[in-house]
Structure formats: structure tokens, C-alpha cells
Amino acid sequence: MTATVPGLAALAALSARIGADRRLVQGAGGNTSLKRGAAELWVKASGKWLAAAEREDVFVGMDLAAIRRGLASDDAEPGPAMRLSAGVLRPSIETTLHALLPHPVVVHVHSVNAIAFAVRQDGPALVAERLAGLRHAWVPYARPGLPLTRAVQAVMHLAPDILLLGNHGLVIGARDTTAAAALLDMVEARLALPERTAPAADMARLAAIAAASGGGYRPATLNEAHWAATDPISYGLAGRGALYPDHVVFLGASPMPRLDRAATAPGPPPDAALLLVEGAGALLRQGLGAGGEEMAACLGLVLARLAATAPVAVLTGRDEAELLGWDAEQYRQSLNAVVS
Ligand SMILES: [Zn+2]
Q1: Ligand 1 centroid to 229 CA: how many Å?
Q2: Tens of pLDDT along 136-176?
Q3: Residue 110 C-alpha to ligand 1 middle, in angstroms?
Q4: What distance in Å separates the CA atoms of residue 250 and residue 20, rounded to the nearest whole number?
Q5: Domains in the chain and their CATH numbers?
């Protein structure tokens, strides 16, 4: 499919390059798209990894005009009737955002540099300074999907080529894939932040605690995941709450379970999939897949870019409940669970 749609091979190549860089996307996060005129939108499928874009079909063809008509008239997510390509792939949850932007090529990444700005209360001012001279806009946090698309609609009068999505990530729009790659590189260079060096993980202690968990946990395999627990500043920041949607979706609701230095064994495995052991490293719930591993590493990479004094804005309990698809009653029960 990729080979038969003009322009899609180039986008697949850029997607694979982006997907290979954990500091830009993690797991199935992030997405790219190509518009062909006003009729076709080729967008990454939900659950597919950008890293695989040159190895397998990851793009879904959608009826761009129909999606745009839907955006103008109601609040419906694009349905199967708007799909142009055969197959079972579902379009990314961020498809309406791609359709909304006028640019022929749109790239959305969960860049850890961008996220480190996106989670700060003073993010808008800092980003305005870093991106001075570039057409950009800050978009306050909204749940991925139509709520986020509506939030982006509210800044479209600025005609931005760059969107900084609060508590989420970065979007780049350009006239073609080459220009998109160049703009992404430029924005990344402008937003680059130093990465605090974290002490090495204490694998012996992690193994002991994992054993004491009765097989509920195992040490994380990606080194960056441990940083959130071995670096004292990062460990402290991690206790504030979830910072961006994919963390909640892949690793569970707040509070993030943490074990302090004196602890020798965790309680029963909680709902959350990530357990930070202070000074030792990260344990992950047995059975957690590669996507969860990547999200644990993302946390370490983001926190390593934030100072202890950073005015961090975390997702609210209601934001998290929305992301997990909880109804009002489940949300209420989760609040009770936190209190008790
Ligand atoms: Zn996203």
C-alpha cells in the first residue's frame, strides 16, 4: 500500500527515523500523516509503531473531505465509512487533528524535550522564547481525540506550523516530508534541554524486591526507566502525579506506586504497572509489553530534564479518569481508594 500512494514512501522513511528515536516517540505513540489534495488523508493507524513504518503497512487511507465535513457539523469521530483503504487498521485517535491542519504533511511526536516544557505552568512563556520567529501556538491540555482537535481549532487563527500541546507533546505541519523533517529538527534543537545524569540502577536490590513480590514484578529492561527512581530529583517529581496521557494509558492512574529506601518488599501489585524503588530503579508488572517498557523509559527521560523547582502541572484525577474511559462511578471509587 505504502509503495502505491505517491509521497507515502517518503513519509514512511521519516516515520521510521522518528520512531527509532526514543527521545521523539515511545512505543505506539506519536503519528504522522500525508494529505493528497483535499480528498485523501493517509494517517498512522492506532496501535502501530512509527518505527515499523517501512516494514509493514502502518497507514490508513481516510476520506479527508468527509472528516472535515464531520468536524464542521458535529462531534463524531471518523467512522469506518470514511476509510478509503481496505483492511482492519483503525486510524489514530488523533486523526481529526491531522485533518484539521492545512499542511500536506503533519508530524506529531511525544518529544521528551517538548514534554518537559509542556508539563510546566510557565511553559507558554518559555516556549515563546525558544521558538521566537517561528509560527507556533500553545494548546492547553485536552484529551486526545476530538477534545484536543477542538482545542487546536481555537488557536488556528494564529496559522501555526508548530503546536506545543500542553501536558502532551509537539505537532509540526509542513508543505512536504522534507520540510517537515527540517522543521522538526529545528524545533528539537531550539527546545533541547540538558539531561541530568542519574546514578546506575541497583539491580541486586531490584531483584530482591521483585522476588519478594511473589512474581508480581520484574526489573525494567530499558536503562532510562530506572532514572526516575535513582535520581533523587526525578523520584521526587514522579510523586506529584501523571504528566501526560500515554503514561496513564499504559502505566495506570496516579498515584504512581513508590517504595522508599527503607522498604524491602512491595505490597500486592497495584493497578499501576510501574513501581519506582527509591535509589534502586524501576520495577514493572509482569506481563507488561514492550509499549509499557517504552513509556517507563519516557518518564525517566522527561524527569531528567526538569529541575526540582520546576512548576510542574500534573493531569487532574478527572483527566486521568477520562483517559482510562472510566465513568463517573469508577472515578468516584478511585478517589475513595486514594483516600483510604
Ligand atoms: Zn499524542
Answers
A1: 25
A2: 999 999 999 999 999 999 999 999 999 999 999 999 999 99
A3: 6
A4: 19
A5: 2-191 (3.40.225.10), 203-339 (no CATH)
